[in-house]
């Protein structure tokens, strides 16, 4: 029996963190394919601009403001979809922040915000979405993680930890969701060209545009694969690197990023939103 794949006639697609980056590009991509897309983020103005940009496409965009760190907000968003717009067919849980962490300058707030948005924010959307889909007997969920969740990388102590947790979460939930008729997928992009990644202080091999990322994700959502990851050659190399002994892994990452040669961090680094926010 093939897993459920959401098509426009099945209902609404909900994308969190849709005001910029991957979320924004994916909302336009799916609206262009005829989907009715509900978009959520904290910036009302950016969502309205996104809605206007979708005018003339075969699908449409619905603006539903909300902060993923507020569980009640996400309950209200789900209620609005269910009672005002129709059946939720697919949820793409994409909101996230990237706050660089340097051991010379650790700050509790960087970890707390990363966990609140990237991890708890997903849970806050996941619970009402699953409850709705369970009642309907079908649905599709995509959790946007990152290849930084495969293994530790420089500046990724907070961000990578949340993304690793999302990978485990999606894998663990799949066992039960399969029996409920709810299809769950994991999205692990490589480096995507966004304002956030442009601030990375190390080389980013195989960098892709947000438009290319949206095309890859949209295609993966229509496939039977569990993990949507791209560009394949790069992400496969990262997976294989994680199988190496730690002594080799740390040497390899230091060499590729040039991190060992970089001077220690001198002070606080600016807060940088990840592409998903």
From TrEMBL:
InterPro entries xref list: NAD(P)-bd_dom_sf, SDR_fam
Alphabetic keyword roster: Oxidoreductase
Cited Pfam families: adh_short (PF00106)
One GO MF term: oxidoreductase activity
Taxonomy, superkingdom: Bacteria
Cellular component per GO, a single term: membrane
Family label: Belongs to the short-chain dehydrogenases/reductases (SDR) family.
Name of the protein in its database record: Short-chain dehydrogenase/oxiroreductase
């Amino acid at each position: 029996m093939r897993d459920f794949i959401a098509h426009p006639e099945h209902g609404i697609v909900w994308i969190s963190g849709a005001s910029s980056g991957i979320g924004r590009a994916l909302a336009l991509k799916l609206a262009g394919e005829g989907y009715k897309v509900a978009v959520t983020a904290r910036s009302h103005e950016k969502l309205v601009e996104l809605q206007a940009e979708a005018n003339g496409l075969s699908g449409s965009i619905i603006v539903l403001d909300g902060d993923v760190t507020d569980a009640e907000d996400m309950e209200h968003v789900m209620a609005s979809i269910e009672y005002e717009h129709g059946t939720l067919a697919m949820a793409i849980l994409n909101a996230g922040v990237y706050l660089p962490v340097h051991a010379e300058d650790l700050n509790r707030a960087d970890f707390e915000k990363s966990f609140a948005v990237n991890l708890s924010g997903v849970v806050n959307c996941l619970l009402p979405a699953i409850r709705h889909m369970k009642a309907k007997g079908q649905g599709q969920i995509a959790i946007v993680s990152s290849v930084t969740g495969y293994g530790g990388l420089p500046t990724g102590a907070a961000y990578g930890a949340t993304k690793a947790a999302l990978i485990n979460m999606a894998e663990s939930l799949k066992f039960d969701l399969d029996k409920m008729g709810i299809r769950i997928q994991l999205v692990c992009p490589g480096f995507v060209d966004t304002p956030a990644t442009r601030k990375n202080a190390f080389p980013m091999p195989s960098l892709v545009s947000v438009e290319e990322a949206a095309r890859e994700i949209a295609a993966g959502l229509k496939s039977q694969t569990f993990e949507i990851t791209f560009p394949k050659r790069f992400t496969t190399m990262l997976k294989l690197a994680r199988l190496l002994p730690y002594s080799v892994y740390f040497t390899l990452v230091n060499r590729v990023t040039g991190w060992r040669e970089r001077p220690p961090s001198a002070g606080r680094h600016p807060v940088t939103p990840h592409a998903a926010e």
